Amino acid sequence: MSRKRPSIFDTLDLTGEAPPPAPAPAPNVVAMQGVEPAMAPSAPNAKAPAKPKGRPDVQHTSIYVPKVAYRKIREIANTEDRKPHDVIMEGVDLVLAKYGFPSLAEFKKGKKR
């Protein structure tokens, strides 16, 4: 047997009269003895500096590529059974080599943990 769901319309007073104020609860004096009132902060809380997430040796960046190029990168990755990220990182390696810088693998070898 199901119960009737409560409705907010059942509690509405549409007569236009203000409802009587609800009585304030009495403070529990016994529980409050020896407790100092909490100090309100004088200034708004300053946000703490954000902690870097992830690996500290990796810089996050976003790139915008045409949809056609992205689809081709995904196609290449699928054909090679790799992730699109791996194909893009291969492109980064090619750019580094073109301008005479060490490859990503060489950067990783030089890094000490």
Average pLDDT across residues?
78
Order of helices and strands: HHHH
Binned, the helix content reads: 25-40%
How many angstroms does the end-to-end distance come to? 65 Å
Task: Give the count of helical stretches.
Answer: 4
Contiguous low-pLDDT stretches (5 residues minimum) are: none
Structural class: mainly alpha
Q: Please report the total strand number as a whole number.
A: 0
Radius of gyration: 32 Å
User: Strand percentage, roughly?
Assistant: under 5%
What is the makeup of the main sheet?
none
Tell me the overall shape. Answer: elongated
What does this 3D model show about the protein?
The chain is mostly helical and 113 residues long. It has a domain at 67-110. Helices cover 35% and strands 0% of the residues. Helix 2 crosses helix 3. The longest helix has 15 residues, at 84-98. The radius of gyration is 32 Å and the shape is elongated. The model has no long low-confidence stretch (mean pLDDT 78).
Summarize, please.
The chain is an all-alpha fold and about 110 residues long.
Show the helix and strand layout.
Blueprint: H1 29-32, H2 67-79, H3 84-98, H4 104-110
Q: Which key terms come to mind for this protein?
A:
113 residues, 4 helices
